[in-house]
Design a protein that fits this description.
The protein has about 325 residues and is α/β, with parallel strands linked by helices. It has two domains: about 5-175, Peroxisomal Thiolase, Chain A, domain 1 (3-Layer(aba) Sandwich), CATH 3.40.47; about 180-335, Peroxisomal Thiolase, Chain A, domain 1 (3-Layer(aba) Sandwich). Helix content is about 35%, strand content about 20%. The chain contains eleven helices and 13 strands. The longest helix is centred in the C-terminal third of the chain and has 22 residues, at about 225-250. The two termini are about 20 Å apart.
Length: about 325
């Protein structure tokens, strides 16, 4: 049985930078209010009418990852596309990336696990590679949040948090079982599914129904988040799934060379860092620059960490995420 190993990473962010002061012109908020609660200073948003979509951003990130991996698109055996904001209701964005890459025929699968999507994607790729079914797997996380946010005071609790962008990783076989992905750990708890959700439009609330109702107070088509509940569950589940991974691999927290959490909220990441007594050099955060990019946040952050020389061969790396569903997971690897 093989291990799988990341051999190439890439990222793409829209050019349009939106600062906290920019948002303060649209709603009753301030740089101080946003920074105190989230740690975010700015984020990237797609400009209306631009060519950026989840698929095109994912494609751009994938090309960088492929180049760094030393592979061509034709070498990819499977595409896994993690997103909560696909280009279309259907088909999925994975097949759109396949088209953009010029791959005539390979399986492409969308993963709808929101903030945990990249971890679920890494775990799925790992299993396909371990069984020998596929050799090279492309995992993408890509999101366009800005087109569907409520940029009024009513929606500020959600809208100030999210940004757009994409990250990608190429995984391949690794015959040395002491290297690559050592274990992944996935969970969900549907009891709390509506605490962080977008209810409409959906098959329960089709667009014609929403339009016909003509209800100015209907905000079901904007994301909803019970912030306090999400925070309380996140810090517990983050801790549990990280501990499970450490125990599985006989690691101590002090053994971690780099911890890359899902960039949900800087306060959550700082809580976990303190709980595991990790130094600043052991944790990578970039939410202050990009906001929460959901499925794209971990691959963007991991790409930047690699580009900055903060992860190198032989390092012990921990990835962990928590998000809507509720879903959560971790992945432990030796780089």
């Amino acid at each position: 049985m093989y291990n799988s190993r990341i051999i190439g990473m890439g990222k793409y962010l829209p050019d349009n930078v939106v600062t906290n002061d920019d948002l303060a012109k649209l709603m009753d908020t301030s740089d101080e209010w946003i920074t105190e609660r989230t740690g975010i200073k700015e984020r990237r948003h797609i400009v209306k009418g631009s060519d950026d979509t989840p698929a095109t951003m994912g494609h751009k990130a994938a090309l960088i990852a492929l180049e760094r991996a030393g592979l061509q698109p034709k070498d990819i055996d499977l595409i896994l596309f993690a997103t909560l904001s696909p280009d279309y209701y259907f088909p999925g964005s994975g097949v759109l990336v396949q088209k953009l890459l010029g791959i005539p025929a390979c399986p492409a699968m969308d993963i709808r696990m929101q903030c945990s999507g990249f971890i679920y994607g890494i775990s799925t790729a790992d299993q396909f590679i371990k069984t020998g079914m596929y050799k090279n797997v492309l995992v993408i996380g890509s999101e366009n949040h800005s087109g569907g946010l409520d940029f009024t005071t009513r929606g500020r609790g959600v809208s100030v948090i999210f940004g757009d962008g994409a990250g990608a990783a190429v995984l391949t076989r690794e015959e040395d079982n002491t290297r690559g992905i050592l274990s992944t750990h996935l969970y969900s708890e549907g009891e709390h599914a509506e605490e962080l959700s977008l209810i409409g439009p959906s098959t329960q609330r089709w667009v014609p129904e929403i339009i016909a109702a003509n209800d100015p107070d209907d905000i079901s088509y904007y994301p909803y988040m019970n912030g306090q509940t999400v925070f309380k569950h996140a810090v517990v589940r983050f801790s549990e799934v990280i501990n499970e991974g450490l125990q599985k691999n006989n690691w101590e927290a002090a053994d971690i060379d780099l911890f890359v959490p899902h960039q949900a909220n800087l306060r959550i990441a700082q809580f976990i860092q303190k709980k595991f007594r990790l130094g600043d050099d052991q944790v990578y955060n970039n939410i202050m620059r990009y906001g929460n990019t959901t499925a794209a946040s971990i691959p963007i952050a991991l790409t930047e960490a690699w580009e900055e020389g903060k992860v190198k061969e032989g390092d012990k790396v921990v990835l962990a995420a928590f998000g809507s569903g509720f879903t959560w997971g971790s992945a432990l690897m030796v780089w």
